[in-house]
Amino acid sequence: MPPWNPRMEEIPRDELQRLQFRLLKTQVYRLYSFSEFYRARMKEQGVHPDDIRSLADAAKLPFMYKGDLRDNYPDRIFSASRDELVRYHVSSGTTGKPTVVGYTRHDIENWSESLARAFTSCGLGRGDVIQVSYGYGLFTGGLGAHYGAERIGATVLPTSVGNTERQIELMQDLHVTAIACTPSYLLHMGEVAEKMGISIRDDTDLSAGILGAEPWSEQMRERIEDWLGIKAYDIYGTSELSGPMFSECTEQQGIHIWGDLALVEVIDSGTGEVLAPGEQGELVITMLQKEALPMVRYRIGDITVLEDEPCACGRTHPRIRRISGRVDDMLIIRGINVFPSQVEHALLEIPGIGRHFQIVVDRQGALDTMLVRVEISEEAFSDKITDLMVLKKKVENRLRSTLNVAVGVELVEPGTLPRFEGKSKKVIDRRSM
Ligand code: DLL
């Protein structure tokens, strides 16, 4: 594989936009000519490739949805022939058929390039030992991170998920400097390490976590950094875009979206209108160079804000803020929109509260109920019962004022809620069971 192209990260903005326009036009012409799916979609929308005369004209193109991939299972949207494919990944999805993603050699190269940029943005390079504790296999996390880490000349420790005690021993013995995994798995590892009498902060060389694949909050970042003595970076992507692709840099001021690979828009979920930078809405991504499974104006369902100012690190590509939730995991409790990330945000500000929680939504008669089960810290656990009552009241009040809805609270012993090696499942919605 060729070395990655770090110079692209500082390309002047006007040059980047010219490049994006050229790539967009080429992709749209290619799809209109060769893909039945896209040609039909564009005709339905009354748009022809000749109508794309500027980058802003991307807004004329039809949206794509996750449902389109499921409806065209397994490969009817692919625009490369089978013999050009070098890999499949498959995402389980929450309902119905899984989503199959195919990759040409060029797709794998661009994907590795984006991860090479992501890792170097987080200050990693040759000499680092990167433990990849995302799942290897059909999930994109493990192999994606693996190729990116090799591309920058780092040493990879491909532990995948599971066998946590062994992972911690290897982390110590092989002088691992960075770990790539879900934030919830890193929390679990920290706890298991403590049980083994090992402090990740004091007894290992770990200095960075490249964490993603699930929502996590700024407060969670602070806790992880303070507790484990590392820098925790947010990495984002979805299987349809290739897998993990985009990350923060050492400034930790938003996720860089590599503009030569992806065009980013944030839209109003209701009207589909493109929003200005700084406004919160639904993320829409067009992959500019993808071959096997092209994604044009893909409505991912994640909620964020576009930051268009260049970053202090010198990279010129646009950034998005930390994902604050999903359009579709938004819970509606008695008419009020609630995101699990808001709950996490509120809980972690309260001293005495541990790192794990679970939301149980149910219905009593016609009324939605929401119970938040929260682990308390070891120190709070040894407090008097009256102190625990005060803590419970405090949590109830904080949640009510943050969410504008009354919430039941149950404080549970440290270590009682389920732990996850991959993506965590924080919400149990019994209304749909
Ligand atoms: O989770 C790809 C990935 C692997 C990203 C490893 C980062 C690290 P999917 O399984 O298709 O792909 O799930 C994609 O996960 O639409 C978001 O809702 C959520 N997600 C991913 N990263 C983040 C993040 C991988 N950093 C879905 N913050 C996305 C919040 C995230 N949500």
Walk me through this protein's architecture.
The structure is a single chain. This protein is of the alpha/beta class and 433 residues long. It has 2 domains: 1-327, Rossmann fold (3-Layer(aba) Sandwich); 330-432, ANL, C-terminal domain (GMP Synthetase, Chain A, domain 3), CATH 3.30.300.30. It has helices spanning 13-34, 36-45, 66-71, 105-121, 140-151, 164-173, 183-195, 200-203, 218-228, 340-347, 378-381, 385-403, and strands at residues 85-91, 99-104, 129-132, 155-157, 178-181, 208-212, 231-238, 243-247, 255-256, 262-267, 280-287, 298-307, 319-320, 325-326, 331-333, 336-338, 353-364, 367-376, 408-412, 427-429. The strands form 5 sheets. A 6-stranded mixed sheet has the order 4-3-5-6-7-8, with helices on both faces. Strands 9, 10, 11, 12, 13 and 14 form a 6-stranded antiparallel sheet that branches. The chain has a 4-stranded mixed sheet with strand order 19-18-17-20. The mean pLDDT is 94. The chain binds 5'-O-[hydroxy(phenylacetyl)phosphoryl]adenosine. Residues 91, 134, 140-141, 212-215, 234-239, 243-244, 300, 302, 323, 326 line the site of 5'-O-[hydroxy(phenylacetyl)phosphoryl]adenosine. It comes from Methanoculleus frigidifontis. InterPro entries: AMP-bd_C_sf (IPR045851), AMP-dep_Lig_C (IPR028154), AMP-dep_synth/lig_dom (IPR000873), ANL_N_sf (IPR042099), PA_CoA_ligase (IPR011880). One of its GO terms (molecular function) is ligase activity.
